[in-house]
Batch of 2 targets.
Target 1
Amino acid sequence: MKHILSVLVNDQPRVLARVSSLLGQRNFNIESISVGGSEEPGLSRMVIVTYADDRTMEQVSKQLHKLIDVIKIQDLAFDESVVRELLLVKVGANSSNRAEINSIVEPFRASIVDVGANSMMVQATGDRAKLDSLLELLRPYGIKEVARTGVTALPRSSARSKAMV
Amino acid sequence: MTSQTEMKNSPMKEKSAEMDREYTGSEILLRCLVAEGVDRVFGYPGGAVLPIYDSLYDGHVKHLLARHEQGAIHAADGYARATGKPGVVIATSGPGATNLVTGIATAMMDSIPLVCITGNVAQNLLGTDAFQEADITGITMPITKHNYLVRDVNELPRIIKEAFTIAAGGRPGPVLIDIPKDVSNAKASFYYPETVHIRGFQPTTEPHPLQIKKLHQAIAGAKKPVIIAGGGVISSGATEELVRFAEGSMIPVTTTLMGIGGFSGVHSLFLGMPGMHGTYAANHCLLGCDLLIGVGNRFDDRVTMGRIDKFAPNAKIVHIDIDPAEIGKNVDTYIPIVGDIKNVLTAANEGLPSADSSAWLQQIEQWKEKYPLQYKQDDDTLKPQWVISHLHETTHGEAIVTTDVGQHQMWVAQYYRFVHPRSLLSSGGLGTMGFGFPAAVGAQLAYPDRTVIAVTGDGGFQMTAQELAVIALEKIPVKVAVINNRNLGMVRQWQELFHGQRYSEVDIGGSPDFVKLAEAYGVKGWRAHNPEEAKQVWQEALRHPGPAVVDFWVTPHENVYPMVAAGTSLEEMIMGDED
């Protein structure tokens, strides 16, 4: 089962290395990890997406908790969270098909952020499935480069996300 | 500077004078160690720790100069295991630091509190592949509880306080502090915090009362209960509480390798060690029990044989540990109890019910009688099991015994009946050859008046034998008992049993004459080939006031039994060669 772990960590050098080293050492799989600031100065928020059964998730969480730089861990429920990823894609384009590409991009509420002679760059945010289908639609035009941030997430105000011990 | 205003009102004027004075990082380090009550450190100097060794020159902290950093860290580890206090080791950057790695991993696996201090190149050189530079914080990340690279001398006191707090607190373990040379040379005022709050380190030490109630109910309903006690009993200092718990509930006790000494080896409720080389009684208790109470143990694969499906198949499992990550890691747990073992058992001993275990205890007595530990003794040859029994008899179980890893280690676990905690010092988790001898050095320094025996093999002894120079020079009266079978015995045993007797690279007959080796260092040496000689030379070695090496020339092809092969059930015990 897919899980999103939201982990508050000390904003210290090497904290990402500590977390990813631990996950590797304990043989846990990671689909994505993203790190950025949090609401509290001195703390960063890491969002880790992983596939694991409940027993493994409990171990992941308990082992992460043993890291001194880990302050708090939440297991976010997918359906009770806002889960987003940012996609940048450079797609082949010329004067003849720019409008066509634009018409694909618009329903995704994505935007064109850079235009060149032979390509344009699209920026989109959303959940992973939405970004995957946008990429599929753009594929026929020739995808030159892709960068994705990995998932970040927060629980909705109605959510009962469980803090893990 | 809030502390400055506090100091003005302080009656201790000198203290404020001390605050005004500036100290170098290395002076601050030593002042912190003194404030932590550290009276002895182990180490080896080098370029990046020159400032630290310069400060050591003043002699406020005693330093034992090892002959290899691995010797230093195992000695610090032996000191920590024997006393319960954090062991402190100092090494230089690069190779000095990497030589600590095996010792750090050894301590991590066995939850031993160590504070490891390494020097590093100055910060302007960090990351440039400078001379003797190694990324030791990166290297040791997975084998330390936590580690620090000190970037500012003003942070040093807080970091050292945190390091000691983390190393000794909760489930103990090693912490490394890497100090670049410019930091140990930089100056700052000195203030050592009494306590420190670490937000990410808040171990649960008190058990939940509801879980204690559940434990009581489980005990009251049990007919075939058993306790498996691990190293947590010893690190928590809970031996007395465990005895009261077992006696009060009428539950027999098996101790893992790390738990040996946590429950007296001569108590009537004692079953011996469980697992791969466990006793018949201990393993059949695990197989047949209806309630299994794990106390500070971790159900590792030398106990479960990695066959969780066949491990304690009919039992409700209670697991008591200070580390919540151990609970549910290897076996499913019916009643998890997180807390310090001493606190948990103290709470459990209040209103403790007795199990309905009299029939079970009778059955166990029959097992013990019918299937004791045994080996074939004769008068002409020296059996390793006999040697260990003899060490036990002549020291009345009162010695501190360290071991290396392999056959002799298992024989010590089986035949030396330990009655006190912190008397068997052995690398249980990592299984580090070369551990025993230097660990004995550390233990002997902690207890100068106790008999300390390093039981080692002819293989393991050669991994750290260079420390003979230290015991000779410092007159540290460790007795080294080399169980010399001219083989890497445990590997040979596996090759005999599981690899069709294809003995690949286990004959180490070309070893030096250990008596002469000892004498070359100025240590007295003896050799014995049969029980008569062994009795005589061992008495002489024990009576000798200084360090001693006794080379017990034992039969070369003895195997450790009973044995359960890895990956099979505890039911499938091989009792001896004839089976």
Target 2
Amino acid sequence: MSIWEYANPKKFMQTSSWALPWVAGLALIALVTGLVWGFFFTPEDYKQGSTVKIIYLHVPSAMMAINIWVMMLVTSLVWLIRRHHVSALAAKAAAPVGMVMTLIALVTGAIWGQPMWGTWWEWDPRLTSFLILFLFYLGYMALWEAIDNPDTAADLTGVLCLVGSVFAVLSRYAVNFWNQGLHQGATLSMDKEENISDVYWYPLLLCIAGFILLFVTLVLIRTRTEIRARRLKALEARERMA
Amino acid sequence: MMTDLGKYADTVLAAYAVSIGLLLAIVIWSLWKGARVKRALEAQETRMGRRNG
């Protein structure tokens, strides 16, 4: 069995219909457990006080903001190279979810920054690259809506996705490139032996899993909607011709 | 079961309210759009099925 079988809309609809309740259920369990654990059952930080609890929203949403763009890059490349429609529609379906994740990361960062840094916003490399990433999400969604021909829209948004990937990568590594920014180093890193204390780490891990599963749930729902919308358009066109 | 958030209560509650609100908005929008398109497709298929006998 090959992964390319799922490029067939019928096969995708069958498989996603079976998988959706499971993924959605797991997403709900992981998110609710992670957020309740983090909010109610973790101690205050000695420096940040209770604002440390914002980590359970800020870190997973920031991770998703970058990784959703990477997912869109991969599916856009699959479209540009192999011309599989489901893959272009999956990229289109993921964009609003990525936009919301980027917005959550920006807003929670600003809310946390006000008491901790003394400012809502700073033109820091990571913050600025995240703002540009947010604008890329908006531009990507607007471009899909602006072009009538779906294949042309998929081509042009695919190219936009390639360009925007520079900012997705920049958002991830900006804290390593420049040291002059306000934003601290990455909270989670493979290079460190211990990133944060276990008391914060386990609920955070659960929240990250919840955000990933929520994203998968939403992409499945939205891709199914896009497939149906395209079939609806095709049937309406056929009816007009008859 | 309200945890004591100390002097940063407004900050933490605002972050949670905005984030949960945005997550709920994208979930509700996705479900609503999905249901609307599904209904429209079913209606179109029924109409064309009837016409083709």
